[in-house]
Amino acid sequence: MSEPKSPTPTPAGDTYKGWLFKWTNYIKGYQRRWFVLSNGLLSYYRTQAEMGHTCRGTINLATANIAVEDSCNFVISNGGAQTYHLKASSEVERQRWITALELAKAKAVHNQAESDDSGDECPTSPPTSGQGGGARNSNSEVQSTLRTLGSKVEDLSTCNDLIAKHGSALQRSLSELEGVRLGGDTEGKIRQVTERATLFRITSNAMINACRDFLALAQAHSKRWQKALYSERDQRIRLEETLEQLAKQHNHLERAFRGATVLPASQSNPALDSKSSGSAKGDASDEDDENEFFDAMEDPAEFITVPADPKYHRRSGSNASGFSTETGMDDQSLCDEQSLGSNPESPQSLEVEPVRKRRTKIPDKPNYSLNLWSIMKNCIGKELSKIPMPVNFNEPISMLQRLSEDLEYYELLDKASKCQSSTEQLCYVAAFTVSSYSTTVHRTGKPFNPLLGETYELDRLRESGYRSLCEQVSHHPPAAAHHAISERGWTLRQEISLASKFRGKYLSIMPLGTIHCIFEKSNNHYSWKKVTTTVHNIIVGKLWIDQSGEIDVVNHRTGDRCHLKFAPYSYFSRDVARKVTGVVTDKDGKAHYVLSGTWDEKMEFSRVMQSNRGENGTEGRQKTVYQTLKAKELWRKNPLPEGAETMYYFSSLALTLNEPEEGVAPTDSRRRPDQQLMEAGRWDEANAEKQRLEEKQRSVRREREREAQRAATPPEEVAEGAEEAEEAGSHQDNYQALWFKRVVDQVTGESVHVYKGGYWEAKDHGNWDMCPDIY
C-alpha cells in the first residue's frame, strides 16, 4: 500500500506541528494523524480542523520515554498507560520530531521542577497597600520576561547538551576510524572533520556563555526595574488620595453653598421643619455619612458609585413639586407595592393553602472515597460528556432537573411582570439571572447526563402559579430544551448545551445557548446567555466552584440593556468574593440603575440620579461616576435546609425534585433507576444500572443509525478501531424531539427547539403511548 507523503512539520514559536502516521490496530494499521507539540504536551487530531473542538489523545512528555526503533519509526510511552507507535515519512523528518520532542521533554521537566519549588516561595517585598495592583502586574510582567529569557537559555543549554552528546559520539567514531590503516588523504579528511566538530562544540559553548551573560545582565537590571515600578506605584497612590481629598472638599463646598442659599423659615415646608426640630445634630451627621464617597472599586471595574446629592433624598421623601416622579422613587418601589399579593406575609397569600406538603429530607450521602484524578488524568483536553464517570462524582439529579432549579426564585419574575417601568423590570430580570447560580456555590457534584428523550416536569401551577417542562433533545452534542409558563404573565424558554474541558487542575464548563423571557402584558422580550462555571482543585485540595464572565440582558422591544459582570475569584483582590456588578441603560446608553451584590447571597439596585466621566483608570480608561440613591434589596438567597451538608447541599426546591409524582411521563427523570438507587445510598447498584442504561442507549442509537442508512445513502465509515470506537457517536443525533420542535428564532436567528404543546394534555388524559422506552 502506498502511503501519502507527509509535509514537513513546522515549528511556530514553542509549538511544533505536523503529520505523522500512528499505529491503531492490526486491521487499520498506521493511520495519518495531525500531531501538535505544545507546552510539554503531545496531542493528536484526525484532521487540522479538529484542533478547535476535539482532541483524540494527549501525552505528557515530562513523564514520557522516547525511543527510536528504526529509520522512520519511534515510540512514545508514559509507563504503560499510554503508548504511541509513530512513523515519519522520512528519516530526516523523524529526526526533526525526535529533536523537538527531546527539547520539549527537557523543558517540561524543568518547568515541573520549577513549579514544585515555587510553592514554598513567597514574595520578598510585597506591596504594602491594596492599591499596588498595577505595580504587582508590572512586576509580574518583568518576572515573566526574565522567566522567558531563562527558558530560552535552558533551550539553548539543552541544545548544547545534545550537541555535546552527538559530538562526543561522532568524535569517538572518528577516533576509531583513525586507528584503522587508511590512506593519507582519508586520514587527513578525518582529522579535518574532527577539528571542525571540536570547533562547532566550542562555538556552541561560546553561544551558551554569551546567553548566560545576557541573562545575568537582565537579572541585575531587574532590581532597578522593580525599584522604578514601586516608585511609580507610590506616586500613583498619592495622586489617588489627593484626588479623593479634592472630591470630598468639592462636595463639602457644594453643601456649604446650598446651606447659604436655603429658603427662610417662614417659606420652608412646615413638615420638614417639624421633622428636623430637636434633631438638627443627628440630621447633620446622617447627611455627612450619606455624602461620604465610597472607595473606588478595583480594576477591572469600569464605574464608581457615590451617594447622590441630599436634595434628591429630601425632595423624594416629600410630595413637594412632584419631584418624586422626576427621580423615579415612586417608580423604584412600584413593583414591591403591586406585588403585595405574592408576599408571604400578606393576608392574600395566607389564604392559599399548599396542595401538598413537600419533603424536606433525603437519605444522607454515603461516605465513599474515590480518587477523581485516577479517572481523569488520561482525559486531559477531552469533552467531559464523553468521559464515563461513576456515580460517586454525581449528585442524584439529572441535568434537566438542574435546569429546572433556575426557577427557584420565580418570585422575581412575578414582581417583574407587575412593573410599569421597563428599566426597573430589567433589574428584576437581571437579579433572576444571578439567582440561578446561588444553588451552585457548594454543589461540586456532577448531574446525571440525561438520556436521549428523557423529560422532566416541574408542575407548581397550584402552589406557585407556574409549570415547567424539560426534554433532552440531543445526545451528541448533549442539549436540553426547557419551557416554563406562569399564570402571572411570563414565559421562560431556553435550549442549553454544555461544552466542558478538563484542564488538569480545573474544569471549565461553558453553557451554550440563549435564555428568553417574555412578559405577556408589556410584550417585553428579554434574552441572555450564561457565564462560565469553573471547578477548581481537581487534582488536590477541596473542590470549589467559581462563576466568571459577563452577561448582557437585552430587552429586544425597547433596546434597554443590563450589562452584568461576574468577577472571577482572586486571592490578591480586596473585593468581596463572588462579586457581581451591573448597570441598566436604555437604548440611548443613559444609565438608570446600578446593580451590585454577590451571586451566592444577594443583589441590590440603586437609582442613578446623575453620571459623569471620571478620572482615567489604571489602564488609561475613563471610569464613569454614578450618583445613586440608597440601595434597595432586589433578591436574597434562601437559607439552606438543616443538614444540607449531608444531602449534597441541596436547596429546599432541589430536595423535592425527585419526589414521586402521580401521572408523570414514563420518560421523567424521577423514574430513572440509577438515579433513584444513588439517592437511596446504593451506589454499587447505581453504577451497574448506569452502565446498563448507557449501553441500552448506545444500542438504540446504533439501530437508529442503521434505519437511517437503509432510508438514505450510507454515510462514510468513520470508526477506526477499538481505541476510536466511541468517536463514531460524535455526529449529530438523528432524533426527533417529542414535545419540542426545531425553529429559527426570530430574535437571535439561532436554530432552537421550542415547546410545541401537547404534554400537559397528554398528562391530563394519561396517554403516554408516544413515549419511548428509555429505561
Automatic annotation (TrEMBL):
Domain PH, by residue range, is 13-106
Q: What is its main location?
A: membrane
Q: Which Gene3D superfamilies match?
A: 2.40.160.120, Pleckstrin-homology domain (PH domain)/Phosphotyrosine-binding domain (PTB)
Assigned keywords, A-Z: Coiled coil, Lipid transport, Lipid-binding, Membrane, Phosphoprotein, Transport
Comp. bias regions, Acidic residues: 717-727
Q: Which InterPro entries match?
A: OSBP_sf, Oxysterol-bd, Oxysterol-bd_CS, PH-like_dom_sf, PH_domain
Q: How does it sit in the membrane?
A: Peripheral membrane protein
Matching entries from Pfam families are given as: Oxysterol_BP, PH
| Ranges of biased composition (kind: Basic and acidic residues) | 681-709
> Which residue windows does the record flag with biased composition (Low complexity)?
273-282
Give its localization.
Membrane
Q: Which GO terms describe its biological process?
A: lipid transport
Q: Where is this region: Disordered?
A: 109-143, 262-289, 304-355, 680-731
Q: Where is the composition biased (Polar residues)?
A: 317-327, 335-349
Q: Which GO terms describe its molecular function?
A: sterol binding
Keyword flag Repeat: no
Ranges in coiled-coil conformation: 229-256
Q: Name one GO cellular component term.
A: perinuclear endoplasmic reticulum
Q: Can you tell me which family this protein belongs to?
A: Belongs to the OSBP family.
Q: Know the name of this protein?
A: Oxysterol-binding protein
Task: Please give the organism.
Answer: Esox lucius (Northern pike)
